């Protein structure tokens, strides 16, 4: 259950104010088809989470306990550092003529591939014996962060103190990641 909750909260935090939300806002405004866009979000989130969970389940047994902990610490540090960077608006995929669902699914899948939340799911799946729960939690976290942007559009991004959320989350993740790394290396 820890894998599910950590992945859910970490991915939710990692997506707040990120490129995925900005891309989704542009696509929601462009297409005005909430159902198709939300379905695309779910497909992209589940696909990225499944790839990460599978890779973590595959890599985990090859590593020792301390190496798995260090791998998770690095994924948390990676996500934390990413929250401090200024987010530039992504390409709004204006040239894509694939429709609301496919443009959303493919656009978010490509944008999320190798991003902080996906790497966090990989780290959790590598560290824990519950890669399926890590994948489910990560997918739910991404979906919970992105779907309200489709429904409420720009009002949500204007109301939330995204900069404060990203900075506070970044600090928490950095401290957590450093403590985990120090523990994995035997320094504390």
Q: What would you call the structural class?
A: mainly alpha
Fraction of residues in H or I helices: over 70%
Beta-strand percentage? under 5%
**Order of SSEs:** HHHHHHHHH
Largest sheet, in brief, is:
none
The number of domains is 1
Rg for CA atoms: 16 Å
Instruction: Look at the structure and give the mean pLDDT.
Output: 90
Describe what is shown at a glance.
The protein has 188 residues and is an all-alpha fold. It has one domain (2-184). The chain contains nine helices and no strands.
What does this structure look like?
By secondary structure, the chain is an all-alpha fold. It has one domain. The protein is 79% helix and 0% strand. The protein has nine helices and no strands. Helix 1 runs antiparallel to helix 6, helix 1 packs parallel to helix 7 and helix 3 packs parallel to helix 5. The longest helix is centred in the first third of the chain and has 26 residues. The two termini are 26 Å apart. The mean pLDDT is 90.
Features:
mainly alpha; 9 helices
Topology:
Blueprint: H1 2-15, H2 19-31, H3 34-59, H4 65-82, H5 99-112, H6 116-127, H7 131-152, H8 154-159, H9 162-184
Helix pairs in contact: 1-6, 1-7, 2-5, 2-7, 3-5, 3-6, 3-7, 4-6, 4-9, 6-7
């Amino acid at each position: 259950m820890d894998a599910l909750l950590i992945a859910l909260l970490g991915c939710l935090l990692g997506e707040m104010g990120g490129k995925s939300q900005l891309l989704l806002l542009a696509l929601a405004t462009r297409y005005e088809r909430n159902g198709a866009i939300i379905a695309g979000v779910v497909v992209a989130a589940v696909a990225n989470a499944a790839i990460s969970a599978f890779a973590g389940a595959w890599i985990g047994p090859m590593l020792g306990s301390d190496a798995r902990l260090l791998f998770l610490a690095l994924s948390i540090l990676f996500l934390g550092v990413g929250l401090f960077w200024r987010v530039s608006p992504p390409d709004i995929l204006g040239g894509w003529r694939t429709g609301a669902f496919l443009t959303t699914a493919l656009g978010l899948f490509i944008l999320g591939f190798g991003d902080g939340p996906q790497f966090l799911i990989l780290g959790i799946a590598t560290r824990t014996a519950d890669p399926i729960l890590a994948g489910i939690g990560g997918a739910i976290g991404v979906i919970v962060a992105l779907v309200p942007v489709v429904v409420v559009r720009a009002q949500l991004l204007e109301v939330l103190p995204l900069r404060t959320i990203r900075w506070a989350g970044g600090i928490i993740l950095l401290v957590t990641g450093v403590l985990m790394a120090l523990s994995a290396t035997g320094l504390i």
